[in-house]
Every structure is written in structure tokens, then in C-alpha cells.
Amino acid sequence: MVFPTHIVAVGGIVEDGEGNVLLVKTRDGGWVFPGGQVEVGENLMDALCREIKSVN
Description:
The chain is of the alpha+beta class. It has one helix spanning about 45-55; strands at about 10, 25, 30, 35. The chain has one domain. A two-stranded antiparallel sheet has the order 1-4. A two-stranded antiparallel sheet has the order 2-3. Strand 2 and strand 3 form a beta hairpin.
């Protein structure tokens, strides 16, 4: 099995018209901007859109 030499990730700030910012609660009770790992062959904007849409 070949392991990657690096991992590419994306993250972004999502703000609505009222100035509210989307945050994701972490397992340990903290808060972070939505984001995650870019899949092989995926462009950065598509990865960011996918990660934001997966926020519940």
C-alpha cells in the first residue's frame, strides 16, 4: 500500500445575510470552520462545497 506524501485540505467561512457564521462542533466540544480533506482528482472549490454541504 502506497501512503500519500502529503494531504490537501480545505476550509472556509460561510456567512449569511445577517452576519451569522457557520461553525461545526467538534467531538471535544470545540468549534471550527467547515472543511476537510480533498479527494484525489477533486478540485479545491468542489471539495469545499462538498464539505460545507455535509454539515448537519
